[in-house]
Amino acid sequence: MTQQEIRVKGTVQGVGFRPTVYRLALECQLHGEVSNDCDGVLIRLSGMDVKIKEFLNRLNTEAPPLAKIESITHAVIEHAWDYRDFSIRASTHSAGRTDIAADAASCAQCLLEINDPNNRRYLYPFTNCTHCGPRLSIVNAIPYDRCHTSMHDFKLCAACEAEYRNPLDRRFHAQPTACHACGPRIFLSPSSLPTHIDPIQRTQSILDVIQQALVDGKIVAIKGLGGFHLCCDASNHASVEQLRQRKHRYAKPLALMTHDTAAIRAYCQISEQEEQYLRSPAAPIVLLNRQAQVDVNFPVLSTAIAPGSHLIGFMLAYTPLHHLICQRFGKALVMTSANLSGEPQITDDEEALEKLAKTSSNKAAIADLVLYHDRPIANRIDDSVVRCHTFGVQVLRRARGYAPRSIALHNSFQNADRILAYGAELKSTFCLIKQGGAILSQHQGDLEDVKTCDDYEKNLALFKILFEFSPTHLACDLHPEYISSKLAHAEAHSKNLHLLGIQHHHAHIASAMAENGLSRTHPKVLGIAFDGLGYGDNGELWGGEFLLADFCESHRVARLQPVALPGAAQAMLQPWRNTYAQIRNSMSWTEFRERYGTTKIAQFFEQQSLATVDRMLQAQVNCPLASSAGRLFDAVAAALDIHPDKVQFEGQAAITLESLVDQNYLTQLLRVDSTERCYQFEIQSDPTTQLYKLKYELSAAPMWPSLLDDLNQQHSQTQIATRFHAALIQAVLKTVDLLRTQYPFNDVVLSGGCMQNEVLSNALQNAIQERGLACITHHLVPANDGGIALGQAVIAAARTIKKIDIGHNE
């Protein structure tokens, strides 16, 4: 006989972990108790030693589907406990760290119930259990108990109470559990339905109205888990176009939803891995390649769904309400966030009715009908977006289904604590490090929008409450005008906290290193950070960098050649400005007009105020230099007549350029023995450069005459786009080879928004691995600025620990 105390850390609350412990303890004939606290789950066992060993083995293999065990520690207790059975104790409160589960898609058992006319939860839109349903979207505090969620005002009926109290029931302590009799209800505006009718009949009637509205081509606003969506028939072109006009979202792709993968296969290719992600509890939007030919049994999707892209973003219905709507409609539905373009998703019922509902006084309404419910959304959460490729999966937006799961860091970070990183300005997130764990917030959006910034501050305050977090060290981007940096400086000043400024591209590289579990003392890696723009160490604008880096420091050893951004911020919105600057960097204007004056881009230039741009360039006024890979992609796209005048969203031109690439032709171009003509970058070097200083510069100038020659000869966009990608890939690999002769690195890390380009990242990963180097990329956090906060946090942690270690050594 022995007594042991067992501590389980990770995502172990609100996922049915205690009932699993209870069942295993009974089956292993053990006495004791289990309880939740702010460190996770605490188990006390009394019984035969062999039975406790069996219990521990089974706890790992039979954990609930939503649980994520980070660690299990156990210790033998000398004194005897007087336990006569096994019980589940009430939650206790103490300072510590535990994870809050992410919202999870409806499980198979709950879906069976809502479709069973003999079940008391038939057609109930909020059916859930410990294996599925809302989590972060409803929580206000910890421990995760019903009183700390937005379900606190819904008193359980006798039947639900019995399930909630039964440790062997799958709804034991499922905090959002409810039914028609005691739970949230759905409402419709405008509505003429009678108020006093049977709940099932009422729900049936509302669903019938929604079904008919969608068939009639109307736009419906639907309140989901983390915010409202706008919904319409994806095959009704007029409806989709009308939604775009009303929402002011004129070009950015729209997400689609359906209830099964059969409907998705009619339009898209789905690999085994992609299907796993579609069906996972996270149920993200998965970017899928279009089918060459659509199944004739399914209606053709509107061409306005994803213009200029070979990808379509699909997700499966993830709440009972979505399932009930999708099952009835049967076809693919547009399911996009309900907001005006650039603003955060609406979560409040009153705001939704005021801004979205179509009334006589609201002529700017977006939706014809608004379907809402009376369960408050405590925390706004957007849909997550992922993309699968040859080397795994990339999370492009980390939100519903993933946040706020912690990201396991190497145990060399176990002493890191009380660090808060504020992230970037676009695609912003923030990150807490508490007791060696990294907690990355959900995607917040672009902080340039006032409402998004307010939401960012609200969520930051909430996370401090949820995780009982009070920082002593802050980290932010070096850019002085980032709103996130300004917030960090204000907080540091008001509370006298230590603030570390972290270089943007170093943070990119460190985030990939951290999510891949590299040690705090890992040797320097070669980091390749390609993105739009980031503030450099010297105050310049960077965006195409090769860094020798570890967690504490980085040194730029190569870069793309800086080229002017005519009009600064305007160059990010109008790609032709980048094309003009790149061409002027390659040849004189006279030569360009003489040789390429008949091309479309030359004719486009003639319609612009080039005299003004030339004066700006000559005087170096509002034309900062930038080594930006993102702006180079924009320049090439505009030269090919792809959105030269204006982009409607970040990366639009580059996404279209990527979609034009012919993979077979690219493979042929990249072969060592290829005789195909390829564009060339010039790699310029400075032999006098000292160690860890800028040594190589990749110039795109030699590429432009060849590219423009192809335009003159009317080569296809596909040929030119493919040759450009091949040229950039070859230039990067040549630079890696040159740097390898100078520095002893074994790992190459790829990060930055441009590394979300599948053509670029897959080719680089394959070639780098062929060279016998390890290639480290993103899988858990975005390669774009959504991952910056994690990188800032681990850099700050490494520097802080190193400083402490040095202090101890002294």
TrEMBL record:
Keywords: Hydrolase, Ligase, Metal-binding, Zinc, Zinc-finger
Pfam families named in the record: Acylphosphatase, HypF_C, HypF_C_2, Sua5_yciO_yrdC, zf-HYPF
Full protein name: Carbamoyltransferase HypF
Lineage, broadest ranks: Bacteria, Pseudomonadati, Pseudomonadota, Betaproteobacteria, Burkholderiales
PANTHER family reported for this sequence: CARBAMOYLTRANSFERASE, CARBAMOYLTRANSFERASE HYPF
Active site residues according to the UniProt entry: R18, N36
Keyword Membrane tagged: no
NCBIfam families listed in its UniProt record: hypF
Start and end residues of each YrdC-like domain: 204-401
Boundaries of every Acylphosphatase-like domain copy: 3-90
Known EC number: 6.2.-.-
Function: Involved in the maturation of [NiFe] hydrogenases. Along with HypE, it catalyzes the synthesis of the CN ligands of the active site iron of [NiFe]-hydrogenases. HypF functions as a carbamoyl transferase using carbamoylphosphate as a substrate and transferring the carboxamido moiety in an ATP-dependent reaction to the thiolate of the C-terminal cysteine of HypE yielding a protein-S-carboxamide.
Reactions this protein catalyses: C-terminal L-cysteinyl-[HypE protein] + carbamoyl phosphate + ATP + H2O = C-terminal S-carboxamide-L-cysteinyl-[HypE protein] + AMP + phosphate + diphosphate + H(+); an acyl phosphate + H2O = a carboxylate + phosphate + H(+)
Pathway: Protein modification; [NiFe] hydrogenase maturation
Organism name: Undibacterium flavidum
Family under the similarity heading: Belongs to the carbamoyltransferase HypF family.
